[in-house]
Amino acid sequence: MEESDIIITLIGTKLAKVGNEFIFKGGARECEPCKLNKTCLGLNSGSTYKIINLRKGVKHECAVHDTGVLAVEVMEIPVRMTVESRKAIKGSTIVYDLANCNNSDCENYVMCRPSGLKKGEKFTIIDVLDELSEQCEKGFSLKVVEVKRT
User: Fold this and answer.
1) Can you give the pLDDT at residue 1?
2) How many helices (H) and strands (E) does the chain have?
3) How far apart are the C-alpha atoms of 101 and 99, rounded to whole Å?
4) Which helix (H) or strand (E) holds 129?
5) Are strands 122-131 and 142-149 parallel, antiparallel or unpaired?
6) What is the pLDDT of residues 130-143, one digit of tens each?
7) Which residues, 6 or more positions from 32, have their beta carbon under 8 angstroms from its beta carbon?
8) Which residues face 39 on adjacent strands?
9) Which residues of 111-149 are buried (b: 16+ CB within 10 A; e: fewer)?
10) Domains of the chain: which residue ranges?
11) What is the distance between the terminal CA atoms of the chain, rounded to a whole angstrom?
12) Which tens digit of pLDDT belongs to each residue from 26-40?
């Protein structure tokens, strides 16, 4: 983990525990008028985050969290996904594109189309893990990789 991977955000006091993980689903309607909403809503919708540190400071009032919010340091959890085998090179940068497959019954579907990613986003491959557990029904040569946003 690099210091540049750390993001400061606000989270409900009941959830603010080091090690807790959460999926950011976006802001609620009640967040719109809040003066702190840029701090809370600066995360990527659909991505999973892990709280790595609690910031010392004051508890802030919040229209969503009844006991207020605290500042925390979070890190986005790397995403596991498939890429063409020839592109599965540790350290390389890739541009996410939807897999050319609509078979949602396939065992690999979630790995080929992970939630929270948008077409055109850039990622760095941080680890090449393995071949798929089940062979691709479309015949694509794929590898499972872990990536982080660049």
Assistant:
1) 61
2) 2, 8
3) 5
4) strand 122-131
5) antiparallel
6) 878 778 888 889 99
7) none
8) none
9) bbbbeebeeeeebbbeebeeebeeebeeebebbbbbbbe
10) 3-76, 79-149
11) 13
12) 999 999 999 999 999
